Amino acid sequence: MLDILHRIGITSSPDKVYAALTTVDGLASWWTEETEGDAEVGGVIRFRFEAGGFDMKVLEVRPAQRVLWEVVGGPEEWIGTHVSFDLKQEDGFTIVLFRHEGWKEPVEFMYHCSTKWATFLMSLKNLLETGKGEPAPHDVKISNWH
Question: What is the residue-averaged pLDDT of the chain?
Fold first, then answer.
């Protein structure tokens, strides 16, 4: 199995970062405006984009520390993979250790998703540091897959 890994520092509190990762309004402010569902453990959050969407089952939430989802709907390559955000405070930053784990093989779509996750993590950083993220459909387009 293969994983997409990213690390980003955000000059905001772990509590505020956590809220942006665990509320529908927070998620819609940095990932995609078309976000709905239940962000509690056991709930499913639905994220929609121009080119499709993803359904994430919330497996774990630990305030200001960790968020873990399982992909239960979306492209075949994503089904059964896990997305996690681990948070820690370090030198005035909240460090976000991001992982999208469980890819079966390094298909071209994985390369695309790795870059898109990086752009959306920058959107999260911008949201928390400036008050304005770049969620879809206002995100950086990197190819014909968006």
Answer: 97
